[in-house]
Amino acid sequence: MRALLFIVPLALTIYAFIDCLNTSEEDTKHLPKIAWVFIILLFWIVGPVVWLVAGKARRNAATGTGPSSWQRGRRQQWVAPDDNPNFLKSLKDDKEARKAEAEAESRKAEKAEDEEELKRRNGGSGPDDKTPPTS
Predict the structure, then answer these.
(1) Is 20 buried (19+), middle (13-18) or exposed (0-12) by CB count in 10 A?
(2) What is the CA radius of gyration of the chain?
(3) Can you tell me whether residue 8 is helix, strand or coil?
């Protein structure tokens, strides 16, 4: 039972200390953050209680006040690929680019085949013909 008299205030101090360190500077009330750290560590039982009651701007769900704009922006920074319109657009653009490239290759191959067919019809007398002329 005596250990409980030591463990509970220690746990409260550790919780308040970590909570203070994780709180942004704009969410601390009345004093700078470093002052709250010293109060929590120096005034062993009273410091953590004061921090929890008056040191941090608490958000209430009933008032509709949510996280700060910095926290909202950070939370929305990563979006799953299937929900990200920019990613889906890049997939569509890549697909269209590959399709256009394949069509260009196909046209190039058809043109080369047409030139080969034309050379065969003309008897191979084109400027690129390396066979000697027969008389």
Answers:
(1) buried
(2) 37
(3) helix
Q: What b/e sequence results for 36-59 when a residue is b if at least 16 CB atoms lie within 10 Å of its CB, and e otherwise? A: bbebbeeeeeebbbbbbeebbeee
Nearest by Cα to 20 from 61, 60, 59, 49: 49
Dihedral over Cα of 80, 82, 83, 87: its sign = positive
Residue count of the chain, please give it. 135
Instruction: Give burial (CB, 10 Å; 0-12/13-18/19+) of 27.
Output: middle
pLDDT at 120: 85
- Enter the tokens of residue 87: 């990613």
What's the predicted TM-score (pTM) here? 0.44
The span from the CA of 80 to the CA of 103, in Å, is 32
Q: In this predicted model, what pLDDT tens digit does every residue of 91-113 receive, in sequence order? A: 889 999 999 999 999 999 999 99
CA–CA separation, 12 and 28 (whole Å): 18
- The residues that bridge with 28 in the sheet, in sequence order, are 56
